[in-house]
Amino acid sequence: MDLKADQERFGFQAEVTQLLNLMANSLYSNKEIFLRELISNASDAIDRLRFERFSQQRAEENAEKPWIRVGYDKDAKTIIVADNGIGMSRDEVVKNIGTIAKSGTKEFLKGLSGDERADANLIGEFGVGFYSAFVVAERVVLTTRRAGLPAEEAVRWESDGAGEFTLGPAERAEPGTTIVLHLREGEDDLLNGFRLRSIVQRYSDHIGVPILMPSDDGEGESAVNEASALWRRPKSELTEKDYHDYYRHITGDFSEPLIHLHAKVEGRYDYTLLLFVPSHAPYDLWAREFRRKVRLHVQRVFIMEDDGQLLPDYLRFVTGIIDSSDLPLNVSREILQSSLAVEHIRASAAKKVLKLLKDLADKEPEKYAVFWKEFGTVLKEGVAEDYSNREEITELLRFTSTHSSTENADVSFRDYIGRMKEGQDKIYYLLAPSFAAATASPHLEAFREKGVEVLLLSEAVDNWVVGGLVQEIDGHRLQSVAQGAPPDFGDSEDEDGKKAIEEATEAHADLTAKLKELLDGKAWDVRVTNRLTTSPACIIAAEPDTDFNLVQRLRGTGLPNQPVLEINPGHPLIRRLNARPDDPRLGDWAHVLFNQAVLTMGARVEDPASFATHLNELLVALTEET
Ligand SMILES: Nc1ncnc2c1ncn2[C@@H]1O[C@H](COP(=O)(O)OP(=O)(O)OP(=O)(O)O)[C@@H](O)[C@H]1O
Question: What keywords are assigned to this protein (predicted)?
Fold first, then answer.
C-alpha cells in the first residue's frame, strides 16, 4: 500500500506550540529527562493494557510478557523507544499527541514566570511528557497500534515540533508504540550504549517492567533495570534516591517529596502503602476537578487512580501507591465502593498518614512548617470531615498568635496551653478577615496588656474549626475574644477589675441605656467593658450568637446577628459623654461610636451616608465651639 499518499496534515493546538517553545529553553539543561518521560509513558501504556485485559477479563495467558526497548542507531542518528503496551488508535493519537487534553492548561501557561529554572519545575509538574522528545530531536516519528485492532490499522505520526504534524497509516506486527527520535545536530553524545544505559538506570530503575537494551557486543539484549515493583521491595534495599525517582515517575514533580511512608501491612487485610507528601502544593490543589494522585494496584497491577475512596478528601495532597492483595483483579468502582477491604485500607491509611505528620511535627519542625504552609488549610478540613481522627488532626493544627506576631502559623494548641498564664483556664482566639485586621483589632487590647496570648484565625475554614467542632482541648474551653461576657483572667488584679467594672456599669447605667435606645435596631445591647485599653468602643457577639462569621463577612455587612456595643469607661470620650447626660448630640455620638467599632472589626458600615452625616454634625459642632 502507498502509505505516503494517505498522509494528512494537522496543526498543533496553540498551547502545545507554546509549551514546545518553552521547553526547548527551560529543559535543555536537563535534556536527558526525555528518556525518562518516554519510558514513563511506555510503562503507563503497559499498565493500561494489563488493566484493560483484567477488567474485560480477557485471558492473559497468550499475551506476550511486557517489555520496553531502548535502542539507538549511530548511522541514522536515531534513538528508539518502543513498548508493547496498549498503543493508540488513530483517534487516540489525534486526541493525545498534538493537543493537551488536561484542563487548566491555559491557566497554567499564564502562570509561568519567565524564570527558566522555576518554570522548568512547573513544566515538570504539569507533565509535558512526550513533548520533551523535541528537546533533543528535530523530528519524531511515532508508530502505534492499538491493542485489539488489526496490524494494518496502525498509525504513523510525524512532526518536527514546529507547529504541525502528519498522520498516516502504518503497519505494526504487534500492539504497542515505537518512537523514533531523529536527533538534532550536536546531540551525538547520546548515541552511546553506556550513556543511555546509565540514563535509564539513573531515572528509570524503579519501573516495574523490564527495560531492554542491546548488549554492547551486539549479541542479544538484557534488562537494564530491576523491574520489580519498587514498593514490593524490602525497605532495607531501597535508598532515598530510589524513592525520589519513583516519586518523580508517578508525579512528574521535579522537586523532592517532603516525606514518604512505606509500609507493608499484614493482618486481616494485606496491603502495601507507598505514600508521599510533596514539598509544595500542586498548582491545581484547589481546582474542583483536582486529580488525586493515589493509585490503586491489586497484586502489583495498576487498577485505577483513586477517586476519593482510598484516602479522605482532606488528605488529597498525598500521592503514591496502595497495593492490595485482597481485592479481585477485575475490581470495579462498584466493588470498591462496597468493599470491606477498601474501607479498612482507607481508615488505616489515613491513620498512618496522620501519624507520619505527627512524627514530622515532633522531630522535624522546620519540615513540618513547610508542610503546614503548603497544605495546612486542606488538613484543617479534616476537623470537620473525619470525626474519628479529630483529636489527631487537632494536634496537627497550627495558628498565628499574638505570641510571635508573625504571619507564620506556628503555634499549636499544645504550645498555647504551655504558655497559659496562671489562673487562665480558656484558650482565647480571634477570628478576623485577615492577619492584619486581626492584629489591629481592639478586642486584643486588654489581652495584650495582661500578656495573655490570643490565637489569630483568619482563614475561612477556621470558623468551622473553632466554631463548634473543637470545643475544648485538655479541659480548656475555646473562647472568642469577640464574643460573650468580658474576659475573666482569673488573677487577683482581675478581682479588682471585676469590682471596677461592676461599679462602672452602675455609674454608666444611664448612658448605656440611652445609647441602647438611640441604637435601636443596630446594637442588640450596650454595656461597659474591661476589654479595651485605648479604643473607646468595640463590637462583640452576644454569647449564644455565632461569632463574627467569616462566611457571612464575605456577603453581608459582616456583623454578628446580635452585635453588642461595648464601651470603655476609661476613655476620655466615654467619660465626657457620661458627664453630660443631656448632650443634644448624643444621637450623633452613638452612631459614630457604633460605626467606628464596626470599622475596626473589619466589617462594613451598613449605611455609610448616615454615618458621614452623624460625623459631620459632630465636626460642625466642634468647629462652632472653637
Ligand atoms: N507509549 C505510549 N503508548 C500509548 N499511549 C501513549 C504513549 N505515550 C503517550 N501516550 C498517550 O499520549 C498522552 C500524552 O502523553 P504525555 O506524555 O504528553 O502526557 P501524559 O503522559 O498524559 O502526562 P504525564 O507526562 O504528566 O504523565 C498520554 O496520556 C497517553 O494517552
Answer: ATP-binding, Chaperone, Cytoplasm, Nucleotide-binding, Stress response
